[in-house]
Amino acid sequence: MLKGLSPLLSPDLLHVLASMGHGDEIVLADANFPAATHARRLVPLSGADAPQLLDAVLALMPLDDFVDQAAFTMQVVSDPTSVPEVVQEFNATLQRHGCAVSQPLERFAFYQRAAAAFAIVATGERRVFGNILLKKGVVRS
User: Fold this and answer.
1) What is the pLDDT of residue 126?
2) What does the pLDDT read at residue 2?
3) 74-94: average pLDDT
4) Is 22 one of the catalytic residues?
5) For labelling alongside 23, which of 96, 114, 115, 140 has CA 20 to 30 A away?
6) Catalytic site residue 65?
7) Known catalytic residue: 30?
8) Which one of 12, 15, 22, 68 is the catalytic residue?
Protein backbone atom coordinates (compact mmCIF):
# COMPACT_ATOMS: atom_id res chain seq x y z
CA MET A 1 0.00 0.00 0.00
CA LEU A 2 1.25 3.46 -0.84
CA LYS A 3 0.13 6.85 0.43
CA GLY A 4 -1.74 9.13 -1.93
CA LEU A 5 -2.49 6.49 -4.58
CA SER A 6 -5.88 5.12 -5.44
CA PRO A 7 -6.25 1.48 -4.36
CA LEU A 8 -7.49 0.85 -7.92
CA LEU A 9 -3.92 1.32 -9.14
CA SER A 10 -2.53 -2.20 -8.80
CA PRO A 11 1.21 -2.88 -8.91
CA ASP A 12 0.81 -4.31 -12.42
CA LEU A 13 -1.05 -1.25 -13.65
CA LEU A 14 1.48 1.12 -12.05
CA HIS A 15 4.27 -0.77 -13.84
CA VAL A 16 2.44 -0.48 -17.17
CA LEU A 17 1.79 3.25 -16.72
CA ALA A 18 5.43 3.88 -15.77
CA SER A 19 6.70 1.78 -18.69
CA MET A 20 4.63 3.59 -21.31
CA GLY A 21 6.28 6.29 -23.36
CA HIS A 22 4.92 9.40 -25.02
CA GLY A 23 2.32 8.43 -27.61
CA ASP A 24 1.75 4.93 -26.27
CA GLU A 25 -1.90 4.00 -25.80
CA ILE A 26 -3.78 2.15 -23.09
CA VAL A 27 -7.35 0.87 -23.07
CA LEU A 28 -9.60 0.74 -20.02
CA ALA A 29 -12.07 -1.92 -21.16
CA ASP A 30 -15.47 -2.99 -19.88
CA ALA A 31 -16.26 -6.56 -18.78
CA ASN A 32 -17.66 -7.47 -22.22
CA PHE A 33 -14.61 -6.30 -24.19
CA PRO A 34 -12.51 -9.14 -25.70
CA ALA A 35 -9.46 -7.93 -23.78
CA ALA A 36 -7.53 -11.22 -23.68
CA THR A 37 -8.00 -11.62 -27.43
CA HIS A 38 -6.71 -8.15 -28.29
CA ALA A 39 -4.15 -7.36 -25.58
CA ARG A 40 -0.41 -7.25 -26.09
CA ARG A 41 -0.25 -6.76 -22.31
CA LEU A 42 -3.30 -7.57 -20.20
CA VAL A 43 -3.91 -6.08 -16.77
CA PRO A 44 -6.92 -7.74 -15.10
CA LEU A 45 -8.81 -5.48 -12.67
CA SER A 46 -12.20 -7.16 -12.54
CA GLY A 47 -13.23 -5.26 -9.41
CA ALA A 48 -12.66 -1.83 -10.92
CA ASP A 49 -15.31 0.61 -12.13
CA ALA A 50 -14.04 2.12 -15.41
CA PRO A 51 -14.83 5.82 -14.72
CA GLN A 52 -13.24 5.60 -11.25
CA LEU A 53 -10.20 3.89 -12.73
CA LEU A 54 -9.97 6.60 -15.40
CA ASP A 55 -9.88 9.20 -12.63
CA ALA A 56 -7.06 7.33 -10.86
CA VAL A 57 -5.06 6.92 -14.08
CA LEU A 58 -5.42 10.59 -15.06
CA ALA A 59 -4.12 11.60 -11.62
CA LEU A 60 -0.78 10.05 -12.65
CA MET A 61 -0.65 10.09 -16.44
CA PRO A 62 -1.02 13.14 -18.69
CA LEU A 63 -2.73 12.79 -22.04
CA ASP A 64 -0.91 13.70 -25.24
CA ASP A 65 -1.31 17.40 -26.00
CA PHE A 66 0.65 17.17 -29.27
CA VAL A 67 -2.32 15.57 -31.06
CA ASP A 68 -5.83 16.77 -31.79
CA GLN A 69 -7.43 13.91 -29.86
CA ALA A 70 -5.99 11.80 -27.04
CA ALA A 71 -9.08 9.96 -25.71
CA PHE A 72 -11.40 7.70 -27.68
CA THR A 73 -14.51 5.75 -26.74
CA MET A 74 -16.39 3.04 -28.63
CA GLN A 75 -19.30 4.27 -30.71
CA VAL A 76 -22.68 2.68 -30.00
CA VAL A 77 -23.28 0.17 -32.80
CA SER A 78 -27.02 0.67 -33.27
CA ASP A 79 -27.02 4.44 -32.61
CA PRO A 80 -23.70 6.15 -33.46
CA THR A 81 -24.85 9.56 -32.24
CA SER A 82 -25.88 8.44 -28.75
CA VAL A 83 -23.63 9.02 -25.75
CA PRO A 84 -24.08 6.30 -23.11
CA GLU A 85 -24.09 7.24 -19.42
CA VAL A 86 -20.69 5.62 -18.89
CA VAL A 87 -19.19 7.75 -21.70
CA GLN A 88 -20.76 10.85 -20.16
CA GLU A 89 -18.96 9.92 -16.92
CA PHE A 90 -15.69 9.42 -18.82
CA ASN A 91 -16.08 12.84 -20.42
CA ALA A 92 -16.84 14.54 -17.09
CA THR A 93 -13.73 12.92 -15.62
CA LEU A 94 -11.60 13.98 -18.58
CA GLN A 95 -12.82 17.57 -18.22
CA ARG A 96 -12.13 17.55 -14.45
CA HIS A 97 -8.53 16.71 -15.33
CA GLY A 98 -8.33 19.50 -17.92
CA CYS A 99 -8.58 17.19 -20.93
CA ALA A 100 -10.79 17.34 -24.00
CA VAL A 101 -13.79 15.02 -24.11
CA SER A 102 -13.45 11.70 -25.91
CA GLN A 103 -14.09 11.11 -29.57
CA PRO A 104 -16.14 8.06 -30.55
CA LEU A 105 -14.61 5.42 -32.82
CA GLU A 106 -16.56 2.84 -34.78
CA ARG A 107 -16.52 -0.53 -32.97
CA PHE A 108 -14.09 -2.37 -35.27
CA ALA A 109 -11.81 0.67 -35.58
CA PHE A 110 -11.71 0.74 -31.76
CA TYR A 111 -10.84 -3.00 -31.67
CA GLN A 112 -8.07 -2.48 -34.21
CA ARG A 113 -6.59 0.41 -32.27
CA ALA A 114 -6.92 -1.51 -28.98
CA ALA A 115 -4.99 -4.45 -30.48
CA ALA A 116 -2.07 -2.08 -31.15
CA ALA A 117 -2.23 -0.48 -27.68
CA PHE A 118 0.58 -0.84 -25.17
CA ALA A 119 -1.84 -2.51 -22.74
CA ILE A 120 -5.48 -3.26 -22.09
CA VAL A 121 -6.91 -3.08 -18.58
CA ALA A 122 -9.86 -5.47 -18.21
CA THR A 123 -12.13 -3.75 -15.68
CA GLY A 124 -15.32 -5.00 -14.08
CA GLU A 125 -17.35 -2.25 -15.74
CA ARG A 126 -20.70 -3.88 -16.56
CA ARG A 127 -22.20 -1.09 -18.65
CA VAL A 128 -21.86 -1.72 -22.37
CA PHE A 129 -19.64 0.64 -24.36
CA GLY A 130 -17.68 1.39 -21.16
CA ASN A 131 -14.36 1.41 -23.03
CA ILE A 132 -11.89 4.24 -23.36
CA LEU A 133 -8.52 4.45 -25.12
CA LEU A 134 -5.96 6.98 -23.89
CA LYS A 135 -2.80 8.31 -25.58
CA LYS A 136 -0.07 9.07 -23.06
CA GLY A 137 1.47 12.53 -23.09
CA VAL A 138 4.75 13.97 -21.92
CA VAL A 139 5.41 14.25 -18.20
CA ARG A 140 6.83 17.72 -17.77
CA SER A 141 8.80 18.68 -14.69
Assistant:
1) 97
2) 80
3) 97
4) yes
5) 96
6) no
7) no
8) 22
